[in-house]
Design a protein that fits this description.
It is globular, with a radius of gyration of 22 Å. With 235 residues, the chain is mainly α. The chain is built from 8 helices and no strands.
Amino acid sequence: MLVGAGLGLAALACLGTTALVKDAHSPAYAKARAEEKERGETARRLALKGVPADGNVFRNDALFHAREIWDERCSGCHGLAGTGGEKGPDLKDYNSRAWIRGFLADPDGPLYMGPAKIDKGMRAVEGTSDDIDALVEYLYAETGAADADAARAGRGRDLLSKKDCDTCHAFDGEGENDGPNLKGRGTARWIAAVIADAGHPLLYTARNKMPKFSGKLTAEEIDQLAHFVLALRSK
């Protein structure tokens, strides 16, 4: 009897271990662990400003409400920890040169548009190291970054036709195409427009799969959320 019970417990332990091993190799599990780590690091940083009466150190963040909106509305599709999103890009370090470079190298990768499963999406951009640097700087400059190299960004602007970027994109803030108009790409105004209606003709058009939040969130909440996304770029 005792032997049978012992074997039963051993079997349960084995099954439990197997489940844990499977979980450890699950992308969803890895994403959850990474985001929990990021949230813990943020909490420790905010705790240095003092602990509010209710113990919620996230209230020390000026973007506290935006974080609440993100958790409720956005976290199911996007990641923040560099492990990928469920249905959209991972926005860790969004708008940095490194993020932009990674996107150009692998637009359909797991950290970028891959999870969205868009048919006939953007192809990887090929070119010399100098070409890629220039294109990255052009896109980086469009975010309004104060440290953008204007000369290098100008060279990137000159490469847009050569690299066939104008086949899918316009660059003047007015023209429509299959892909987003890149004028002001990555600014607070541009991000707010994506949140409000990513399917707008100046943005992702009919290929868009992101919900329209105009009408679901107030203009102020959309603006707060845009600034939350902007703040994800490492300093």
